[in-house]
Amino acid sequence: MKSNTLTIIKKEFARFFGDRQMLFTTVIMPGLLIYIIYSIMGMGMKKMATEGTNELVTLCVENMPASMAPLLDGIPAVSISQQPISQEGIDKLENKDLNVVLVRFPDAFDAKVAIYDPQSGVAAPNVEIYYNSANNASSRVYHILEASLSAYEDQLSNRFDINRADSEEVAFDKANKDDVLGSILSKLIPMLILMMLFSGVMAIAPSSIAGEKERGTIATLLVTPLKRNELALGKVVSLSGIALLSGISSFIGIVLSLPKMIQADEVGVELGLNYTGADYTVLLLIILSSVLIMASAVCLLSALAKDVKNAGTMITPFMLVVMFCGLTPMFQSGTPESLTAYLIPFYNAIQVMTAVFAHEMKWMPVIVTLAANVVYTGIAVWGLTRMFNSEKVMFSK
Fold first, then answer.
1. Directed axis angle between helix 277-304 and helix 363-388, to 10°?
2. What letter does residue 75 receive in the DSSP assignment?
3. Can you list the domains of the chain with their CATH numbers?
4. pTM for this model (two decimals)
5. Per-residue confidence at 233, pLDDT binned at 50, 70, 90?
6. Is residue 227 within 8 Å of residue 282, measured between CB atoms?
7. What whole-number distance in Å separates Cα of residue 232 and Cα of residue 220?
8. How many CA atoms are closer than 13 Å to the CA of 90, on its beta-carbon side?
9. 102-137 pLDDT, tens digit each
10. Which of these, 225, 205, 199, 228, lies nearest to 304 by C-alpha position?
11. Cα angle value 237/238/242 (rounded, 5°)
């Protein structure tokens, strides 16, 4: 009995280690992909953590106290300008491209702090710091300054306040609701859309070609008086349409659940009213072009596979690449300026969707992305046609 068991074990090991593709995808590929993806994610997180640290920020200070000069001079990458803070200057902070932090100290700050009695019940001298949380550099300097002032305040037994709002109309963070909501959506929704589309493609594409090869029905289909390029295009378009329906269903679910997820009802955000018809049109076109190239790529891999199981194994690395592209908005600030970046499939779609949700859409990246995706889809359909013409590929065992 032991001999029979060892024979089975040897047979299975021989089958496994004799199949180079199975050996690579099962043993080598998982560790290799994890290493590559985690390394890239680590670099992205490092970049995100240091984003804005080298950008020069203008610190406009009104009524600079003598006691604060050493503290403010110690903030890195800051240029200090002593000047009165006007309403015009505060309004300019709403432009998140402006690297500015405004600080207003009360008149005779040091003298007022020295005589202030925390037990008196009178409001303490208040330091006002205006910033824009949607601007990385402005937000960085604000947090450093707020932490330094808080530490100094503790040393003085809380003899002054920081950003005390005496009325509901006072807002020290000048980022508007569109910027805040756009920042949340741009890092979350594109990834979800891409993954939902890919899930739809994965659910049907492998069985459409690899399944027919496994069942032997592909031969009947190939002998029909049908041009191979028409067959390839029909496969890609039909699979894309079905996957698109699945993606749209998932997208609707995301949109309906999003207000609850980000507590929009509590913060007064009117979800969806901040985007124009052009934004929705661009999103639809990007989704359509992305699902076309996604379906065509999966069809290519499915045609190369021997059966559905083998197709799933071959598509796994592709899925991880798509997943990584979906994660990129979380590790970067803004979208690439170079149009070359929009030639990279899936990455380009993610960047355009990120720009749309962040209210930063530009038409040239959209045009380049759509054109690139159409070209890649055409190349994939051509490649699939060549495979349909190859008996070696279509009848491989």
1. 20
2. S
3. 57-175 (3.40.190), 178-394 (no CATH)
4. 0.66
5. confident
6. no
7. 15
8. 15
9. 888 888 888 888 888 888 878 888 888 888 877 777
10. 205
11. 115
